[in-house]
Each structure stands twice: as C-alpha cells, then as structure tokens.
Amino acid sequence: MSVYMPQVKRHGDEVIYEKTPPYAWRKNYARMAVKDTRRFYNSEDFVYLDTETTDLSPVFGGFVQVGILNKKGDILFSELIMPEAEIKEKAFKAHGLTQKDLEKAGAVPFPEHHERLQEILHGKSVVIYNAKFDSQFMQGQCLRYGLDPFLVDEWWDLMPPCAALLGPYMSQYRDFRFISLSEVGDKLKINIPANLHDAIADCYLTKGIMERIVNDIPHEEIKPLPPKGMSHDPS
Residue of 56, 152, 196, 229 with fewest CB within 10 Å of its CB? Predict the structure, then answer.
C-alpha cells in the first residue's frame, strides 16, 4: 500500500505523536488503509500463510512449520517441517519447537512438501502479516534446495495497513512503526490464540484481523499506539 507522506519538519520525539503529522492526516491514512484492504479482500481469491523458522536467514535457515488457510478459513496445509539447520534460541523461545519435537512428529524436510505447496500457492494471492519475511523465506528455501520458486500472483502484506491504522508515527523514518501481530489482535479485540506462534493459529489471527478491518472496524474511533512514554490521546 502506497501512502503519500507529507514532508514535515522533524520535531523531537517528545512531540511526534501530537504534532507530526497532524491528527487529520492520521485519519486519512486510516481511511486509506481500510479502503485498500477492503478493495483487495472483495476482489481477490486468496490464501493466508504463516511460517515458523529456525532463525532469520531465508537461505541458510529452515522452516519448522508452515500453515495455510483459504479465504473461508479451511486448512489447506499444516505441517511440521524438519529443518537442516539449527533452531536458534530466539526462534525456540517464540515457537517452542525443538529438533526432538520434530523427530517425534515424523517431520520431513522442506523438499518433500514443495510439490504440494506449489499446487496450493501457484497463481494465488497470499496474505501474510509481515510478508517480506515469509515470502523471502519461502523463495530462499527453494534456492537452498535448487527447487522451482513459488509463482504466486502477489504476496500481500497486512502489516502496512495495520501500521497506518495503529502504529505510532516515527519522524526519523517518515513512516509509521510496524507493530506485532499480537499487538494488532489485542488492539482490535480479536481473540488471541493460546498457541500464538503456531503457524495455523497465526493464520487464523491474521484472518480475524483482516475481516475485522474489512467488515466492521470503526476506524474513526481507533486511537493509534503512541510512542513510548507519551499520552495516548492524539487531540
């Protein structure tokens, strides 16, 4: 989603939320975010995708789990995957999966899932929260194993619209700060799954957020998150 960002005088962080940009601009960004999300939702047949990984490297790391839902919420793919890479501590703290867990579940490496994933994703629009990470990881694993890349119609990122709706404006970046999936779910009063950071659970949370935006979000009433240490009231 492209948003016109006025060139504003850079103020100190202590006044970003109240004066940069004016609240009227904020409401326009919110309207654009809702409008663009609704337009996409109503014109596309798409799938939701989420992944859990060993680390942040799309080529040298690996998947430990991939989940995919269709637009209605039916599970198309939900598999644990045996990575040929070490599960780093930070990743383990997020998803809680160990090599032994994957062995017990009979997980197999990514190449054995590639053909099925190709069938599901080929020519589809794919909705992801933080699409840059997951899409790079999907294609990076194809590169690692010498497999054909996924030819999707579009990787559609739900994070920028949520940032425009809810993220604090950061003058040093001339942009809104991205916020986590769970922060958005909490702010929009979506039920946060107990097993957050399970790929399918995160797909359902992404679906809930998107449908909340599309169907009944009162965006005029939403108050974005302020930078740390600042008042929440934008007026």
Answer: 229
